[in-house]
């Protein structure tokens, strides 16, 4: 592995891409520790460790994860990449139901550029909404559940200061989008995925150290071993795929013979990736946000119900709801991203067929059957991976700092494998031995 890195840096253009990517990621992390105007981040850092021992961070746990801990420090990049993720998900869903967006998707590069522009606008709108919500909760003390005095970290609460903070956080989201696009165009790997990856691993060392300090040596060793086994299992499942063989018949076009080749359609066991977990987490984040805004001590029947079942991540009702949502969203997302009928029609158009299956509708039915059988274990796998850290936190008494969270592991493994494969392809183009031997 180290030798492959050396060979990668010896290739001039690949070395430039890697250095450029590292440079952008460094600036990105710096923006995650620079406080927004009017915020005393030192006061937050002094008491943040004590706050995270409670459920105070649970309201914005997912956003805080994707911001690398910048949210609870009210930094310039406090929102992280979450507004862009949410906007991308919404646009993908709207593409299915809005004919105009579906037509743009089929127009190729020009249509995709237009959809990307719509995603940027929606990202900024969501950033304004989220930053306003966060500042409102910080101003009333709900963000930290009254654990830190508001006057200590937000001494000046006049309208101009609050508007400036919202503007800076929204601008930070715009800069993050620009960083992601720069990495995709001039660096190595998918820019947005690498930014998420960077923010997730940023909190990993401190979380490991927290467990080391809080738990006994044998419990710490057991957690680390379990984490390594979990990562190995996730790598195995993420790489697993069903290859459906496809043959193309020979056909004469003019004086040339085309076709006669064999290929395959790779269908992954986890075809949906991390998206169902994000969907489910986002939905379960809404009742927690409502509780935070309305107050956990409210006499409202709905608030009392949500406070009883959806505040603690270790509650059986919460975990069961989380699991069902992940499974449901996995089937839903696969259904809107992979259309068996469209794939079968394209195969038939170019003279392709699956051996033993008639072209057209029988091929579409066969693909749908195989995809359903693959998505079933894939969705159950996602649900179990997401629930494992909740069960572990309840059993070991760990806090929100528990490092081997399902979402964290899936992001780290998925993005890591994808980036390594891209570097591998660059090396193979120059006849060098790559990472994957």
TrEMBL record:
A single Gene Ontology CC term: plasma membrane
Protein name, per record: Protein translocase subunit SecY
Any one Pfam family match given in the protein's UniProt record, by short name: SecY
Taxonomic lineage of the native organism: Bacteria, Bacillati, Actinomycetota, Actinomycetes, Streptosporangiales
Transmembrane segments: 20-44, 81-101, 121-139, 159-180, 192-212, 218-237, 315-338, 379-396
SUPFAM superfamilies for the chain: Preprotein translocase SecY subunit
Keyword Transmembrane helix among record annotations: yes
Membrane topology: Multi-pass membrane protein
Function description: The central subunit of the protein translocation channel SecYEG. Consists of two halves formed by TMs 1-5 and 6-10. These two domains form a lateral gate at the front which open onto the bilayer between TMs 2 and 7, and are clamped together by SecE at the back. The channel is closed by both a pore ring composed of hydrophobic SecY resides and a short helix (helix 2A) on the extracellular side of the membrane which forms a plug. The plug probably moves laterally to allow the channel to open. The ring and the pore may move independently.
Keyword terms, alphabetized: Cell membrane, Membrane, Protein transport, Translocation, Transmembrane, Transmembrane helix, Transport
Family note: Belongs to the SecY/SEC61-alpha family.
Assembly and binders: Component of the Sec protein translocase complex. Heterotrimer consisting of SecY, SecE and SecG subunits. The heterotrimers can form oligomers, although 1 heterotrimer is thought to be able to translocate proteins. Interacts with the ribosome. Interacts with SecDF, and other proteins may be involved. Interacts with SecA.
Organism: Nocardiopsis gilva YIM 90087
Domain of life: Bacteria
Keyword Transport: yes
Gene3D superfamilies: SecY subunit domain
Subcellular location: Cell membrane; Membrane
PANTHER family from the UniProt entry: SECY/SEC61-ALPHA FAMILY MEMBER
Any one of the GO BP annotations: protein transport by the Sec complex
